[in-house]
Write a structure and sequence with these properties.
With 204 residues, this protein is an alpha/beta fold. Helices cover 44% and strands 11% of the residues. A 4-stranded parallel β-sheet has the order 1-2-3-4, sandwiched between helices. α1 runs parallel beside α2 (54-82) and α2 (54-82) packs parallel to α3 (103-123). The longest helix is centred in the middle third of the chain and has 29 residues, at 54-82.
């Protein structure tokens, strides 16, 4: 309605050629890439970390961490030629403090938070800002099993000072801020959007 254009391209976030194709086709369609949002994430293992198979560990790291690395490596040279850009990663408060039964996911997001800071340092001179958003539990398909299990949902709400589970629109403001000129001097930040859950004394 506002006159914007969208292009849908299927791509596996953890596969190098797929990410390369995604970036190349986007560049062909729009002529430049100013903002890249690494939003792909997965978590096929729920339970004690050391009970996971090697394949599950690798899958989580492939999508959550390798995917962010591949996306950044693909878009950074383009942004540098343009004189700057913005990379925004979707992290999690699980990367700040361990989440119960989500150990591997927590490790992958902690790695993503460090990747954010490393790339902010390395790409800053090229005027490429790299930041991350760390949501708490948000009511999406990804977290459906948590939200739809009453005892888990009640525990999440009890550990969230604002007293409710977040909705997707609760994350929008932080994303728009980081993508805008209002965040020109923000680089290497991990912004929590969690209703205060990360301030709670227990595990998330």
């Amino acid at each position: 309605a506002a006159g914007g254009k969208a292009l849908a391209i299927a791509a596996h976030a953890g596969e190098e050629q797929a990410v390369k194709n995604l970036v190349e086709r986007s560049l062909e369609a729009f002529g430049r890439i100013d903002i890249a949002v690494g939003n792909a994430g997965t978590n096929p293992h729920f339970g004690p970390t050391l009970q996971a198979t090697t394949a599950l560990w690798d899958k989580i790291m492939e999508v959550n961490l390798r995917g962010a690395f591949l996306l950044s490596r693909a878009v950074a040279p383009i942004m540098e030629r343009q004189g700057g850009g913005r990379i925004i990663f979707m992290s999690s408060i699980a990367g700040i403090r361990p989440a119960e039964d989500l150990g591997i996911y927590s490790v992958s997001k902690a790695g993503l938070n460090m990747l954010t800071r490393v790339l902010a340092h390395e790409l800053g001179p090229a005027k490429i800002r790299v930041n991350a958003i760390a949501p708490g539990t948000i009511d999406t398909r990804f977290s459906q099993v948590l939200v739809d299990t009453p005892e888990i949902a009640e525990r999440i709400v009890s550990r969230t000072p604002l007293g409710y589970i977040g909705q997707p629109q609760d994350v929008v403001g932080a994303a728009l801020f980081l993508a805008s000129t209002m965040a020109d001097y923000v680089n290497g930040a991990v912004i929590t959007v969690d209703g205060g859950a990360s301030s709670h004394g227990d595990l998330a």
